[in-house]
Every structure is written in structure tokens, then in C-alpha cells.
Amino acid sequence: MENQTNSLEALFEKTGDYLETRMELLKLQAVNTTSDVTSSIASRFAIALIVSLIVLILNTGIAIWIGDMLGKMYYGFFLVSGFYIILAALLYAFRSKWIKKPLNDMLIKKMLN
Questions:
Q1: What does the mean pLDDT of the chain come to?
Q2: What is the pLDDT of residue 33?
Q3: In whole angstroms, what is the distance from residue 18 CA to residue 24 CA?
Q4: Surface-to-core class of residue 18, CB atoms within 10 Å of its CB (0-12 exposed, 13-18 middle, 19+ buried)
Q5: In this structure, are residues 80 and 63 in contact, taking their beta carbons and an 8 Å threshold?
Q6: What average pLDDT does this structure show over 34-50?
Q7: Which of 26, 66, 74, 87 is deepest in the core (most CB within 10 A)?
Q8: DSSP label at 113?
Q9: Would you state the pLDDT for residue 2?
């Protein structure tokens, strides 16, 4: 009878060790996934910031150039602004297809890997 008690105690001890190890593994996997997603988002944000600065400077130059060609500086800025209003309307209309779905797919892919 005592042999069975020792076997059950050993079994419960091994089960407890297994559960602790499994929980630790799940925590480490969650940390790994979170750090991967965070670093991916941070790098994309940094690239987007740099591209935004380039686009801002480029658009200012284009607006000045168009304004110079049309004779009034503000005409160029109005034309460039009109272009971005049309672009914003298109992005708003197709935001789910062009932004939301690809972003969701990327995040899910990162989290499942």
C-alpha cells in the first residue's frame, strides 16, 4: 500500500513539474511573439516616419515649382493639396481592403510564427 502512495506522490510531483514547465514555456513563447510584433511595428513606424519627411519635403518643392510655373505660388500649394484630398478620399473608401486587412494579416502571421 505504501508503494502505491509513493507512486501517486511521484506522479503528482511529476505532473506538477510538467505543468510548471509548460506554463514557463507558454510565457516565453508569449514574450517572444510580443517582442517580435513590437519590433516589427517599431521598425515599420521608423521607416514610415522617414518616408513621410521625404514626401513632405518633396511635395513642398513640387508645390513651389508648380506655383512658379502658374505664376502664383499658392496655386501650386492648392493643386498639391487637392491631389492629397483625392488620395485621402480613395484611402478612406478602400481603407478596409488596402490598410486594415493587410495589417491584420501581418499581425496574425507574426503572432502565429
A1: 90
A2: 84
A3: 10
A4: exposed
A5: yes
A6: 91
A7: 66
A8: -
A9: 67
